[in-house]
């Protein structure tokens, strides 16, 4: 029996166990085999499989030891290598994976599989240069065209990397061009190769060569079925300034039935080419006349298409609109012609939902024309005879509202408009009375309009009454259109402002957000969710919401690179750049880290504060601080029908008026990284040793290259602008606290050797092996805990007055809010930020809790000063907590519900009954009571635990 | 007015207005990526000039010998852009690519038997029922929709490679097969 067969037979049960997820039995089988055999091949394979089983059962440390052992002997057999690939992927040690394959391929240059795997490993690490080199080598060796195209793609990807200089970029494209033309088979064999080829020609502006390819029969045929190739072709045509040719061919396509808007744009661009391609002032009479002639021809052409399509397709009528709009903008016709076309368009398509969106981009009119347009809209007689009539009315209302002037927007007028929209909504409901419950009512947009107007009232007078009304009408709308996500989104925003956070969360969950939508939509409920978190009293709703919404990042971080690899294998190159973009946007998502930080903030309110949490979170937060973030949050999904002279509904309804963007994230990372760094014994040397996987790719932003210490001290106005005034105070306070204690932390912190020795001891206890790669002697020997610093102890300074003043100022702000009966969410915000300061104080002073430390380093005077701060903080927390609980009680009372009901009297009309409003009032007040009491009790609990 | 362009991975960040609609499923990221990495030319998007997504179609090419065909996996249009022939445009595109590029014999799709609106629409596009697939959408028990809710019609439309229309039949509604016998 050959060695390979023996190996196969012995190892199969381990594979099976791994496949079925029985990691334990896989480990047992490995151990058995390892005892029995000493054959080198088998042992290595066994080791690597055991390492895999260990990784999968979360025993990272043990797996690491095995991993190192296997890697050290530079494995060459398939079984070991493929198992190791999974282990290293699981551990995030992609760099080790690259090295392993590189070594294997070097040893066996005829092994095609190892070559491909080396290429893929470089692709996974976005190391395009090496990927390109490996594939070039493979092409020479194996003479397969595919590898040539891999290397072309490698060069292109390297060229598009943000770190590549423009001159290098051109060189790389030239290299790509040389490679592609050296191919023994023409690129047009597949659309994807062809696409790559013409893109290179586009970048190098080799238009003649591109022309030959594109004008060939096969080139034309590819462009007719590949939208991607056609897109590049269009860009090349534009680059060559062939507007006229492109316009003519687009006209032909339109005549043949193509209704892609891009074709119409090509026609329009060709019409205006004589005037648009010249610099301002350079327009001659001649070019003007040419353009006028074009316009008149185009009118006839488009009118023909309009007639043919009727109301079935709106592309041609819209093109006509765009034509007249451009003519007006270039001063080639007056805007009354244009307004007439708009009126025609509305008459034709006013019964389509998209009519409003179609027309808004054209409303940049002169006053006289705007007045004419307004008059046209005002003339409209509302009718509820059919769904089409209703839609027409909705469009009129939206369009009228969109162009309202600032002077027309007052509390009274908006209240009146809100009620008008509501009345029309209630009237329009009859048209959808027979629809199944899963359908949306045709009148829905009217209730959205009503809510918009009511929120505007709130934006003007800040009286919660208007928000109660908005919530009520939307809740009513939902009883008719259960599936309306627009209503739910608006309610989420309104309820958060009102402090009815459990209702906001409920509506969000009803939207059934899943998969990648977590990244784009979780901001709706998780932004500043600490304000409403009841984690301190053990209710983990919000922390678990954070964890659930973050699942998507863990799942997809490997997946996307797997698909990039697959695209290479299948030679579907067109998608690769976008896959890479997608991967990076998800991996470096701003929302991902905002949620993570929010989770840390909540976690600290309910878990005992210890160095384990702090060390772990410190490393993660530092990773976040090195990323170049992408903001994938979807705000466009939030419906807004506010007038164009006012902020959108999204802007108006942001909790505390500020979004948590990059600036917010940076400020809070600075607060927490600094506090954790102080409390932790991990310095850079120790962290490097304890780190398991590769470090994430660092952003190329110059600021990120600065030393961490400097970065943490940086304060930028535009970043601070994203903070609320309480958050800004917290930042200042944390800075003062950190500045005061930092010298003492640095002095007292044990040296790396001691920390590493301890870590090594812990690892040995767990795994039987000491820590890898740690030479304790090298770190200056004495690792038994006694150490003496050479430098002198830093002098003990007086605490900054700010440290206690902060708590006083927060309390007075809180009391002021209570007196002015201000929004409950703001009240909670002040309270939770104060609580956060208290927690940060505990973290910063943890190191000095041990009497031994205080005694050895003579820190008695320092520690004595803590008492004042802590006492003040504790008192303030107590007061706030008591006040919140009291307000919560009042909130839950029948009298308070009456206030809500009275406020809603104007919207308690027709079908919206008193009982219905009463139920809304109850759920809002109950929800607020719950969060007020919960946060209040949480503060008491936290205070007691730390005192 | 809508731009027809290829579906891209980053569209997943902006398809909420389509996917929050109750009838549109949001799949795992790997689902979209696997389509895009294999049949990028059968997946496209209709987009408003402002960049807002209006609808999309995901398709694939599958089957062997004379069953080689294009398949419409998902076609969805945001509620505010319905009744504008967007679905028709996208289906046309998929048929064109299945015909000219993949050289398929037909294009097919599955639809719930009780979704009369969609069935009518597809019939208008030239599709006809080829067979009824029992419990294609899983066993729902005897609910309000009954059998029609859990069964699917497999609807087909022949392409130019099938001039004799062998891939369709007139009595398709009566031909019932089990879900396990279809791909």
TrEMBL record, chain A:
<dbReference type="Pfam" id="PF09797">
    <property type="entry name" value="NatB_MDM20"/>
</dbReference>
<dbReference type="GO" id="GO:0031416">
    <property type="term" value="C:NatB complex"/>
</dbReference>
<dbReference type="InterPro" id="IPR011990">
    <property type="entry name" value="TPR-like_helical_dom_sf"/>
</dbReference>
<protein>
    <submittedName>
        <fullName>Actin cytoskeleton organization protein</fullName>
    </submittedName>
</protein>
<dbReference type="InterPro" id="IPR019183">
    <property type="entry name" value="NAA25_NatB_aux_su"/>
</dbReference>
<comment type="similarity">
    <text>Belongs to the MDM20/NAA25 family.</text>
</comment>
From TrEMBL, chain B:
<dbReference type="InterPro" id="IPR051646">
    <property type="entry name" value="NatB_acetyltransferase_subunit"/>
</dbReference>
<dbReference type="InterPro" id="IPR000182">
    <property type="entry name" value="GNAT_dom"/>
</dbReference>
<dbReference type="GO" id="GO:0004596">
    <property type="term" value="F:protein-N-terminal amino-acid acetyltransferase activity"/>
</dbReference>
<keyword id="KW-0012">Acyltransferase</keyword>
<dbReference type="InterPro" id="IPR016181">
    <property type="entry name" value="Acyl_CoA_acyltransferase"/>
</dbReference>
<dbReference type="GO" id="GO:0031416">
    <property type="term" value="C:NatB complex"/>
</dbReference>
<dbReference type="Pfam" id="PF00583">
    <property type="entry name" value="Acetyltransf_1"/>
</dbReference>
<protein>
    <submittedName>
        <fullName>Acyl-CoA N-acyltransferase</fullName>
    </submittedName>
</protein>
<feature type="domain" description="N-acetyltransferase">
    <location>
        <begin position="2"/>
        <end position="160"/>
    </location>
</feature>
<keyword id="KW-0808">Transferase</keyword>
